[in-house]
Specification:
The complex is a heterodimer of chains A (about 130) and B (about 240). In chain A, about 60% of the residues lie in helices and about 0% in strands. Chain A has about 130 residues and is mainly alpha-helical. Helix content of chain B is about 50%, strand content about 10%. Classes of the chains: A mainly alpha (about 130), B alpha/beta (about 240). The interface of A and B includes residues 20, 25, 28, 35 and 41 of A.
Chain lengths: ~130, ~240
Amino acid sequence: MSKKRQTFGQVLREARLAKGITLRKFAEMVGISPTYLSQVEQDNVDPPTAERVHKMANLLGASADEWTALAGRVPEDLPGIIQKEPTAMPELLREASGLTAEQLRALREKARQMKAQGKPGAEGGDV
Amino acid sequence: MKSSLPFLREDVIESEAEMLLAEYGREHEGIICPPVPIDEIIELHLKLEFEIRDLRTLFGLGDVHGAIWFLERRIAVDEQLDPARHPGKRGRYHFTLAHEAGHWRLHRKHYTVPEGQKDLFDGEPKPSYICRSTEKKLPVEWQADCFAACLLMPYKLVRSAWEEWRGGLEPIILSEMPDRRQRLQAELLRRGGGKSGPDGEGDMILENAVRPFADLFQVSAEAMRIRLEKFGLVARKKEASLFD
């Protein structure tokens, strides 16, 4: 099966229908108008805000981060994370950019272990 | 402009609508009380791509309610009918969806793309049918309207709901209504104007009377009044009901 890159609207529509939810019902669940949701699904307007994308993904059991990226948005917590470490964090991201998914998984696991050892929550606890 | 379509009798159209409801009942869930889940029928059962958009601008017509593209398996309803933004249009929205379902079930097999037809613009294909409110009704549009009424207000469902609503199958008779003037005034106030034609006043009084029942089916009072008159559950003067 050829895997051509789908738009945010297409992914959203497919996921909604796979769950057996109508356009109108889903619009109500998200708290937006059916007209707006329809326009998003048809890619006639910019994707919704990161917060809304997050809500949509959660309601449909999809990955919020994946959908946020697909929508061209930045996850809401990221700007804060970067601002806390304005030099180190962008450097880390630049270094990590280009790694394979497997390598990123290993790096993430390592970071998790380091955080566990460093007892996050302790005063001034650097990673 | 369109290929020749067969003449369809009303009972044939009604059977087709009943068949669609039965299919939906088998594959999803049986419809035992109103309203008929037309959004689910369109998207989940018929699997038609559905969108709500500004059709008036798209087609440059001020009275468009809906459109259907057979080849693309797509229907669209004008954004002015979005019930979340315009709650008063909920009945018209449902009727338009059911109308497009009618085109899908009754006409798609007979439809051929007119020779030399070009896209509208930017690869936007021309729809198979554009459904408008003020256009003189072509036979296909009449058939789709008839289908919509049968689908949203099926005989058995209307009958059982009426029985529950009225506590029996007694019809509402215009000539026997004691509060006609008040009803007319209330309806005129609600609509912000009158309805012309010899039966206009009677129509308005009856529509005022059946509006709560129409709300159960989420259709307009006018659509429900027409359907109920057909069933003999609403009449201008006393006559035998179909259910007697």
